[in-house]
């Protein structure tokens, strides 16, 4: 099967990560899917932002969980990247799902609860996906195995990927035990034997974050099931040429 090219936080090399302009650009560049990070505001609204703290990617300070949705919407999430994007806001999951619904794109929602344990984040996300009838083209991923387990119990048919950047002795058995359908691994963990081993155990393998042409090529060559890249335009060009 063809490797799925996910735009990592959208087309985040050329637009501010995890914003609607980055998602729109990813679509224009021909990405097969979009990866984005989900956290909860104080009033439990799922929003798309990578860090627990808003400092790096907005003009605000402090933690996502200490902002109400109305407050977080007042932050500028584009100017830090370029003045061209000034006035861009942090999208809610709802806003993203409404946009992605009519598009031919896969969705990867990463639950960012490895540092903050957001109460009920799994069921909140699941309810949104059900409402929009998007469970069948969504992959849920997390570094937190509790969330993978939780999701695989919520609905067996939803695809889940266990994220890891660490070498783990029993990675495949561990991921299977959590009910994961796949492994989302850091590029340095990639090897032909890991792919074969995972496939033999019915687990798919997706690799992050792959931006260098030679690394992208290697992922295609090894028949990875998915890659996460900040440069989906380059990845798609390479894919067409191999
Ligand atoms: O989902 C792959 C990748 O996004 C995980 O790492 O830190 O970019 O969220 P990070
Ligand atoms: Ca992520």
TrEMBL record:
InterPro entries: GP_PDE_dom, PLC-like_Pdiesterase_TIM-brl. Residues 3-239 form the GP-PDE domain. The keyword Thylakoid does not apply. GO terms for molecular function: glycerophosphodiester phosphodiesterase activity. Keywords: Hydrolase. Its EC number is 3.1.4.46. The keyword Hydrolase applies. It is an enzyme of class 3 (hydrolase). SUPFAM superfamilies: PLC-like phosphodiesterases. PROSITE patterns: GP_PDE (PS51704). This is Glycerophosphoryl diester phosphodiesterase.
């Amino acid at each position: 099967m063809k490797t799925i090219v996910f735009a990592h936080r959208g087309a985040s090399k050329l637009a501010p990560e995890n914003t609607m302009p980055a998602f729109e650009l990813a679509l224009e560049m021909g990405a097969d899917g979009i990866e984005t990070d989900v956290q909860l505001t104080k009033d439990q609204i799922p929003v798309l932002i990578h860090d627990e703290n808003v400092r790096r990617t907005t003009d605000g300070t402090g933690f996502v969980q200490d902002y109400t949705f109305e407050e977080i919407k007042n932050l500028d999430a584009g100017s830090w990247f370029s003045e061209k994007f000034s006035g861009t806001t942090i999208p809610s999951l709802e806003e993203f799902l409404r946009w992605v619904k009519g598009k031919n794109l896969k969705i990867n929602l990463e639950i960012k609860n490895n540092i903050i344990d957001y109460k009920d984040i799994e069921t909140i996300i699941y309810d949104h996906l059900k409402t929009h009838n998007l469970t069948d083209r969504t992959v849920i991923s997390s570094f937190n195995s509790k969330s993978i387990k939780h999701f695989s119990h919520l609905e067996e048919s939803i695809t889940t990927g266990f994220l890891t950047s660490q070498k783990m002795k029993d990675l495949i058995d561990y991921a299977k035990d959590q009910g994961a359908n796949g492994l989302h691994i850091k590029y340095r963990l990639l090897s032909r034997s890991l792919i074969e081993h995972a496939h033999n155990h019915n687990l798919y393998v997706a690799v992050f974050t792959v931006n260098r042409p030679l690394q992208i090529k290697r992922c295609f060559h090894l028949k990875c099931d998915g890659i996460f890249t900040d440069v989906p335009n380059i990845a798609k060009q390479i894919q067409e040429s191999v």
